[in-house]
Amino acid sequence: VKKLPLVTTNDVKELLASKLIDIREISLEKRYPSTLIVTVFTYPVVANVLLPTSSSTGVVLGLQHQYSYVTSQGYIVTSALPLTKDPLPILRIMDWSVAPAAGSQLLTPETIKIILSARNVLRENYNLTAKEIVILLRAKEYHMNLDGKMLWLDLQSPLHVQLQRFQEFLKQTPLQKVTEYIDVRISDRVIYK
Asked: What is the pLDDT of residue 51?
């Protein structure tokens, strides 16, 4: 136990780190003689998360009927109440070996950035909205659901190259001809069905 004048931000951060993940910043305000006000800023939630389960339905939203999210740093956070009023994309994790717990890091910040960048480019440049994104962690790929048509991308090739393939594909083939998927992962061709 420290006296109020000796309490530092690092002291508080150490105490909170085991209970709160993804702390971006902590602010302390000391009101003498005996009050310490702690304000905690966390990284924002950027997507809802559907996690695999062993039940016959395949997936559940959240852990123990809570809301599950992923933050911009890739951490799983859960809450009994919604954390945002804004509509967020849904990330459906389809790797049965993954059973992340609240507080664990599911994706790297770079992976989150790539996936959300792809979603933004599709919305801004092509007027296509991916409300659900299926992530296959082991395969290092993700599939964007564009009104029932899946756009297959991977995390190993540069995003701009894959989106160039998609743009070239759209110049030659109307999107209405696609019934199931467009695969832009392969370097020398685009496959669709």
From this structure: 74
